Amino acid sequence: MTPAKTSAPSDVAVEAYVYGYSLITMEYTRRVMTNVTTSEGKLAPMGQFANLRSYPSPTDKEVTAPNADTLYSLAWLDLGAEPYVFGIPDAKDRYYLMPMLDGFTNVFQVPGKRTTGTKAQKYLITGPKWTGTVPEGLTQYKSATDLVWILGRTYCTGTPDDYKAVHEFQDGLKLEPLSAYGKPYTAAKAAVDPKIDMKTAVREQVHGLDATAYFTLLAKLLKTNPPTAEDAPMVAKLAQVGIKVGEDFDAAKVDPTVAKSLAEVPAAAQKKIMGHMREAGVMVNGWTFSTKTGLYATDYLQRAFITAIGLGANRPQDAVYPTAEIGGDGKTLDGANKYVVHFDKGKLPPAKAFWSITMYDAAYFFVPNALNRYTVSSRYDFKYNDDGSLDLLVQHESPGKDKEANWLPAPSGKFILMLRLYWPEESMLDGSYKVPPVTAVK
Fold first, then answer.
1. Which residues sit opposite 355 in a β-bridge?
2. What are 294-336's pLDDT values in tens digits?
3. Mean per-residue pLDDT for 367-393?
4. Distance between CA atoms of 63 and 40, rounded to whole angstroms?
5. Strands 407-409 and 390-395, sheet pairing
6. What is the DSSP string of 147-170?
7. Which residues have C-beta within 8 Å of that of residue 45, sequence separation ≥ 6?
């Protein structure tokens, strides 16, 4: 009988790196976003909400590809000690979603208008080992890992009155440990860890780890964020590079043939992850997007790639994000030219919640402009053509006052467009709807 062929040690180590990439990135993101004493801006201690109160401005460079459609509510949980009770107030029919990501970035639950409605609701978020009794009136949401990230988004028009209404909703979001449920509870101030790097981008920190440091942290995290049953083949491969679930990683005990290749693993794995872009989605009319987000099963490379370029991505049923760096002619989008995106009558982006097209510079940041307009969306009062079609004008200079209702200002140089569809129609998910190209005009 011929023995089964095994992968080269370096290949197995690269696979192990790719498998752990989402978990390592989540941990580094958690450290940075919770390293404060009290909630401030987008940061808050563990078990507390950080509520963003306004859209980002062009001067904000902390988050790439920001949006001007929703306000974020962010919270990190450690379910190792006990579950958390999560209360959501009545949203009064406002669109929102509260995706809950496990340590591997799988969206395991997503309460919100699409799934659970907008009335007040309460959940008990439990970890993989918890076996207690769920109190009456609470719905259990079980995470496969102790690490959980709630990445809430609430629709907002951006007017002063609507900001106020959304702020009231955000203030009604409540988190408390199960042991405090039904009792007066005030979250304690947290301690700041001065050793945590708060300046270097998370991706740079992760990519800066050598293989030993990376696998040491991965082994530690797997103790509280265990692989799933379907990960069994990968668990066997992890063991080949010295990562045994539930145990510490000891580089000194790694097989010598594997150890020789460890120094090369991070660069090789990062190249493989970032090189996955062409396979991660599809391109139609110059727009690239993926419906393979939010739930990944054993597609570890897709999971790692989405982590690298869009950590916290939703399930496609909640949102898809077609992105264009080129026009319909295949040429790079540039503000030196003028463009139009033409939608035939009845063929606007099919979304049950809302759609928007956002303008970014080449680094995925907002572009300053005279109108302070960074997006055009379904809430805008456009001027339609006589036949009911719509032309959105994408250019650097104003097309004239009479056409500014349809104008999305562009920078003078290269730019990127992102179309967001929240709660997309099936025609968007199955590919039957084609986003029209960004067409250069003279």
1. 421
2. 999 999 999 999 999 889 999 999 999 999 999 999 999 999 9
3. 96
4. 16
5. parallel
6. EEEEEEEEE---SHHHHHHHHHHH
7. 34, 36, 37, 38, 39, 187, 189, 190
> What is the average per-residue pLDDT within 137-166?
97
Decide if 226 contacts 19 (C-beta within 8 A). no
Q: pTM of the entire structure?
A: 0.92
DSSP-assigned states of every residue in 68-105? SSEEEEEEEEE-SS--EEEEE---TT--EE--EEETT-
Contact status, residue 261 vs residue 194, Cβ threshold 8 Å: no
Question: Coil, helix or strand for 278?
Answer: helix
pLDDT of residue 256: 85
Burial 26-39 (b: 16+ CB within 10 A, else e): bbbbbbbbbbbeeb
CA dihedral 98, 100, 101, 106 (to 10 degrees): -90
Q: In the structure encoding, which two tokens stand for residue 357, read together?
A: 């097209």
Per DSSP, what are the bridge partners of residue 74? Answer: 50, 151
Q: Is the dihedral of CA 197, 198, 200, 206 positive or negative?
A: positive
DSSP for 363-405, written as a single string? TS-----TT---EEETTS-PPPPTTS-EEEEEESS---GGGGG
Q: 121 pairs with which residues across the strands?
A: 88
Distance CA 169, CA 120 (A): 11
- 8 A C-beta contact, residue 152 and residue 99: yes
- At 215-226, the pLDDT tens digits run 999 999 999 999
Token pair of 389, please?
A: 């079609």
Cβ atoms within 10 Å, residue 219: 20
Q: What is the CA radius of gyration of the chain?
A: 23
**Which sign does the torsion angle of CA 167, 172, 173, 174 carry?**
positive
Task: List the one residue out of 438, 427, 439, 440 whose CA is nearest residue 349.
Answer: 427
Q: Residue 50: in which H helix or E strand, if any?
A: strand 50-51
Dihedral of alpha carbons 174, 175, 178, 184, sign:
negative
Q: Phi and psi dihedrals of 80, rounded to 5?
A: -60, -40
Ranges 5-19, 154-168, 235-249, 348-362: which has the least confidence:
5-19
Structure confidence at residue 56 as a pLDDT band (50, 70, 90): confident
CA nearest neighbour of 268 among 14, 7, 9: 14
374: its two tokens: 């960074």
Per-residue model confidence as pLDDT tens digits over 232-267: 999 999 999 999 999 999 988 888 888 888 999 999
